[in-house]
């Protein structure tokens, strides 16, 4: 992506999140970027196309962070790396992270285009696959991977949303490393509630007998 296109995306994210689709205009964006409105049309034909590009770029970067976890040698390591990749994407790209989760009607779209919705579904399947292989390896209790994935994602999204909105430490600019530590501790507590324990092993053995 060119430097100017990147610059346009950054400012467009800010405007969309601040003013919504109806309050957004190419003229406003041009002023924020420091170019004329006609100059923007060398890159985008419409506001809709620009929004689609914002979402596609957000998912592209998120996938990049997640797919790095496939280099992990074990299910546990791939699970951990995928979680860290999601967190890193959110911290390093807060505008794009928030743009992914803006409801379509809030930005003037009747629905998310199929190609972008498919990207979101692919991210969900990837995360559920990491959970499924942890269950297969006996690291997590055998449950519906999609439901467990929903629980873990809701926790992650909740923590990150509180951080990006500066609600974890009101009135303070919470350091990213401090948040990472808080996030890790919170995930650990949640994970311990889902992990297989000796009692689970005993009950499984008794059921098998």
Automatic annotation (TrEMBL):
Domain HTH tetR-type: 2-62
Pfam families xref list: TetR_C_33, TetR_N
Gene3D superfamilies for the chain: Tetracycline Repressor, domain 2
DNA-binding region per Swiss-Prot/TrEMBL record: 25-44
Keyword set, alphabetical order: DNA-binding, Transcription, Transcription regulation
InterPro entries: Homeodomain-like_sf, HTH-type_TetR-like_transc_reg, HTH_TetR, MT1864/Rv1816-like_C, Tet_transcr_reg_TetR-rel_C_sf
Keyword Transcription regulation: yes
Entry annotated with the keyword Aminoacyl-tRNA synthetase: no
SUPFAM superfamilies named in the record: Homeodomain-like, Tetracyclin repressor-like, C-terminal domain
Protein name: TetR/AcrR family transcriptional regulator
């Amino acid at each position: 992506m060119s430097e100017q296109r990147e610059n346009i995306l950054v400012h467009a994210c800010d405007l969309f999140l601040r003013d919504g689709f109806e309050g957004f205009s190419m003229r406003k964006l041009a002023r924020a970027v420091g170019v004329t409105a006609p100059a923007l049309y060398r890159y985008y034909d419409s506001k809709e196309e620009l929004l689609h590009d914002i979402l596609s770029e957000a998912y592209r970067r998120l996938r990049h962070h997640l797919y790095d976890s496939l280099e992990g040698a074990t299910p546990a390591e791939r699970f951990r790396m995928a979680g860290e990749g999601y967190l890193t994407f959110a911290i390093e790209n807060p505008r794009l992270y928030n743009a992914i989760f803006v409801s379509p009607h809030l930005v003037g779209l009747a629905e998310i285009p199929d190609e972008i919705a498919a990207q979101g579904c692919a991210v969900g399947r990837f995360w559920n696959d990491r959970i499924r292989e942890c269950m297969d390896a006996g690291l997590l209790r055998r449950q519906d991977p999609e439901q467990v994935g929903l629980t873990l994602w809701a926790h992650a999204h909740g923590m990150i949303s509180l951080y990006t909105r500066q609600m974890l430490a009101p009135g303070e600019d919470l350091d990213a490393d401090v948040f990472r530590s808080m996030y890790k501790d919170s995930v650990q507590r949640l994970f311990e509630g889902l992990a297989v324990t000796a009692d689970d092993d005993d009950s499984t053995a008794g059921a098998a007998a």
